Structures are given as C-alpha cells and as structure tokens.
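User: Hi! I have a protein structure encoded as tokens and I'd like to know what sequence might fold into it. I'm fairly new to this, so please keep things simple.
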C-alpha cells in the first residue's frame, strides 16, 4: 500500500530524543494500549511507540468503544514519567495532535476538555492516558491517540453526527505516514518542554472555557460555566449560585449545557 506504515518509513530521518526512537507497527491489534502495557511491563525503552492500522477492540475512557477502522491511525506510547508529570500527558498528547493537524492540513484544531480534539466542532481524535502505580511512584504510563485520517465517517452511523476525519474535512487525501511522523516529532518536542509552557498552550486552545457546560459523572449532572483549568488539568466549574467546584478529568463527560437541555 502506497501509504503503508513501517518502522523504517516512520523513523527515517527523525532525530527524536525519546518518543519514537523505537516503533512497532501492526496491521491489526485488539488494542494498542494493551500491547503497550505488555511492552511496559517487560521494561520497553521509554518512548516505544505501538502503531496499528486497525484495532478490533479499541476503547476510550470509561470503557467506551473507540472505533479505529482502516484509514485511521491508533498509536500508544510507553512512558515512565514522575508522578508530577502525569497530568501533563493529556495536555502533551492533545497539543501534539492539534499542532500536527494544523501543520499538515491548515485546518484549525481546538481542544474540548478533557481529552478530545475537534475540527469544525467535531471529534477528529481521541486521547487516553493510563498509568500503573507502584506505591507512590509511577511504574509506567501509556499515552493512547486515535486519529481519523482517511476515514469515511458516514459509514459509521454511531458516530456520524459527532465525529469527523481529516480527509472528510479537506475533501482530499491525507498521508497517514505524514501525520504519524509529524505527531512523533511534536510529542517528542513537548515531552521534555517546560510544564508551564505546556499548560499555557493547552489552556489557550481549550474551546470549553467560558461555556455553559454539563458535567456528567456516574448518574450525576452538574451545570455551570467552565471558568478555568488548573495546572493539574482539572476544570473549575462556576455554578449559578456562584460556588466554584474543581472537577477532575478522571470519571466525567462534558456536554454543552445547550445540547444537554435539548436532549432532556
Ligand atoms: P465524549 O467525546 O462523548 O465526551 P469521552 O471523551 O468521554 O466521550 P472518549 O474515550 O474520548 O470518551 O471517546 C469515546 C467516545 O468517542 C465513544 O463513546 C464514541 O461516542 C466516540 N467515538 C468512538 N470512536 C470514534 C472515532 N473514531 N472518532 C470520533 N469519535 C469516536
């Protein structure tokens, strides 16, 4: 396949310090996260990247399904951050995806707190961070990224209303190899960047801030204005009664309050 991915094509000429120095490619995997966890558990070098053309049981947060058909790219990165570095992984992944999309396509990529990358208001990529703790230290973390590159989203009715792909937005083909290479360069650049700079750029790209939102956690829904985000990645939600609540990224989903009212 002209646009087929291989470790050699992906890494050729890249001078990355950590992320992407070792790349493993698979035509199909159940889940790149699962393979990356196994690699980490057996001590794979930091920055090892697992890439699959297709995942058969890809998942998102909270056990949700992540569709990764042919034409998309799914990759997971093995990392060994210190505990203070954990909250930055979601920011680094989001920024690297957004910057890569903008550099290669000219499309504007915005971030929806906590983990979605949007183009023209629709989700083009998903991000998942998993970590394994050994006492108070991080054993390893795995950063997962799925991007809809050359995907006809209309073929997937369950996401057709909310998702998009780069080829769909551009009405032309996009090189998967080009996206993966650029993504690895951006990830590597951000991974050891000053944390204040990462947080600052992440905050400035969040489309969520200033909006009336509905935070859903388990069976509970909280309404308010998304006022700000803190350096640990949490959202500060201002309720109508003026109270301010810190919402951790962990177990919640975020919807526009207007959308939520419309569906109730
Ligand atoms: P939401 O975006 O609804 O807040 P989430 O951030 O809580 O979801 P994620 O883990 O990011 O959850 O993504 C899982 C959700 O993304 C699925 O429930 C599905 O609605 C949607 N989805 C699944 N596959 C894709 C895809 N390839 N492209 C875009 N959206 C997808």
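Assistant: Happy to help. Inverse folding works backwards from shape to sequence: for each of the 264 positions I chose a residue that suits the local structure. Here it is:
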């Amino acid at each position: 396949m002209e646009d087929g991915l291989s470790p050699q094509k992906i890494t050729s000429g890249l001078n990355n310090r950590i992320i992407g120095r070792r790349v493993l490619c698979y035509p199909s995997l159940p889940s790149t996260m699962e393979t990356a966890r196994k690699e980490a558990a057996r001590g794979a070098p930091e920055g090892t990247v697992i890439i699959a053309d297709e995942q058969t049981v890809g998942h998102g947060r909270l056990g949700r399904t992540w569709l990764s058909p042919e034409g998309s790219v799914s990759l997971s990165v093995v990392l060994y951050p210190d505990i203070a570095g954990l909250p930055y992984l979601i920011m680094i992944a989001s920024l690297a995806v957004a910057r890569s999309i903008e550099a290669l396509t000219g499309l504007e990529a915005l971030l929806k707190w906590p983990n979605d990358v949007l183009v023209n208001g629709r989700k083009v990529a998903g991000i998942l961070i998993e970590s394994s703790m050994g006492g108070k230290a991080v054993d390893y973390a795995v950063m997962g990224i799925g991007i809809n590159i050359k995907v006809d989203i209309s073929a997937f009715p369950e996401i057709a209303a909310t998702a998009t792909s780069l080829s769909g937005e551009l009405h032309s083909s996009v090189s998967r190899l080009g996206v993966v290479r650029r993504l690895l360069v951006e990830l590597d650049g951000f991974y050891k960047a000053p944390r204040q700079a990462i947080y600052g750029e992440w905050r400035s790209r969040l489309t969520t801030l200033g909006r009336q939102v509905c935070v859903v956690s388990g069976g509970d829904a909280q309404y308010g204005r998304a006022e700000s985000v803190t350096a640990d990645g949490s959202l500060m939600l201002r309720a109508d009664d003026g109270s301010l609540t810190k919402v951790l990224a962990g177990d919640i989903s975020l919807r526009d309050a207007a959308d939520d009212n419309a569906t109730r």
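A useful reference point when you look it over: The first strand starts at residue 23 and ends at 29. Feel free to ask if any position seems puzzling.
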